[in-house]
Design goal:
By secondary structure, the protein is of the alpha/beta class. The chain folds into 2 domains: 134 residues, ornithine cyclodeaminase, domain 1 (2-Layer Sandwich), CATH 3.30.1780; 178 residues, Rossmann fold (3-Layer(aba) Sandwich), CATH 3.40.50. Helix content is 35%, strand content 26%. The strands form 2 sheets. Strands 1, 2, 3, 4, 5, 6, 7 and 16 form an 8-stranded mixed beta sheet that branches. The protein has an 8-stranded parallel beta sheet with strand order 10-9-8-11-12-15-13-14, sandwiched between helices. Helix 2 crosses helix 3 and helix 3 packs across helix 4.
Length: 329
């Protein structure tokens, strides 16, 4: 049996921040909302002694000839050791035999990409049409991917960024300003970012919420991507009580580990309330933003269907480009 092994450089040649990749992920969300996906709950391993966690996500999509099993890690002390905060890999399996077909040694790139693409999908349906200023909380990898993704679906003139590490924030402003060719300003507070932006994305792994409901204003969209565990929270629960439209990637998952589960616990959201899934938006079953004056929120925890769609896309491209090294096992 031959197993194809691809490294990060090869994988980056296969898939990137494109409309085609966004459509592949969007189709996965549609299939999920249609009940055509087998997706178990997230498996998380906490390693408190080293401030680390490892998540395992997977999903089989009806009609796909392959599926992926993704292992992603986040170790908060790694940057002080000169190592990246996150890493990971994906295993691509045959849906008909269960045999291993490929190992994608992406170092977390595919996770960053598919998370960014989910943000683009959310913005397409929920963000206001007219965005002058896009705000971002955090200065890490996802803070970059989310703004790159936003460019796929919306134009904007300025970026406001705020984060805890002044050096990292300054570096973000310099690098993203050059990459996107626009003004990037460092904001003195989260409140400034929220009040002066029409689009805000939060990208931090904090356990202490910092974005307050009273800062939300008509015409604002907020996408929260940091809370991928039940102990994490970026938005104060009352934010959801102020929203006109609430969306998420998976109600089942977000009610357990996302921002929404904090809002439910606080009584600001009812589990049977009007909360739309991205797949219902991409499939045309539900509507997104109804007017430019609405306040909209989207809770993204990252679901296995995203990993399968992006891994399958990478695998197909690798075969077309004849990339990777086959190993007999």
């Amino acid at each position: 049996m031959s197993v194809l092994v691809l490294n990060e450089g090869e994988i980056r040649r296969c898939v990137s921040m494109t409309d085609e990749a966004a459509e592949a992920v969007a189709l996965g969300f549609t299939r999920l909302s249609e009940g055509r996906v087998s997706m178990p709950p997230v498996v998380r391993v906490d390693i408190p002694a080293h401030r680390g966690e490892v998540d395992i996500k997977t999903a089989y999509i009806e009609g796909y000839d392959r599926f992926a099993i993704k292992v992603a890690s986040g170790f908060f002390d790694n940057p002080s050791r000169g190592l990246p905060y996150g890493s990971g890999l994906m295993l691509v399996m045959s849906a008909s035999t269960g045999l291993l077909e490929a190992v994608l040694l992406d170092n977390g790139y595919l996770t960053d990409l598919r998370t960014g693409l989910a943000g683009a999908i959310a913005a397409r349906h929920l963000a206001p049409r007219a965005i002058d200023t896009a705000g971002v909380i955090g200065s890490g990898m996802q803070a970059r991917f989310q703004l790159r993704a936003l460019r796929l679906v919306r134009g904007f003139r300025r970026i406001l960024v705020h984060g805890r590490n002044p050096e990292a924030v300054a570096r973000y402003a310099d690098e993203m300003g050059g990459e996107l060719g626009m003004e990037v300003q460092v904001a003195k507070s989260v409140e400034t970012v929220v009040r002066e932006s029409q689009f805000v994305v939060t990208t931090t792994p904090t356990r202490a919420p910092y974005l307050r409901a009273e800062w939300l204003h008509p015409g604002l969209h907020v996408t929260a991507v940091g809370a991928d565990g039940e102990h994490k929270q970026e938005l104060h629960a009352g934010c959801f009580a102020r929203a006109n439209r609430i969306a998420c990637d998976s109600r089942r998952q977000c009610f357990k580990i996302g921002e929404l589960h904090h809002a439910i616990d606080a009584g600001h959201v009812q589990p049977d309330g009007d909360i739309v899934e991205l797949g219902e938006l991409t499939g045309g079953v539900q509507h997104g933003r109804a007017s430019e004056d609405e306040i909209t929120l989207c809770d993204l925890t990252g679901v296995g269907v995203q990993d399968t769609t992006i891994a399958v896309a990478a695998m197909r491209a690798a075969q077309d480009l004849k990339l990777g090294k086959p190993f007999e096992v």
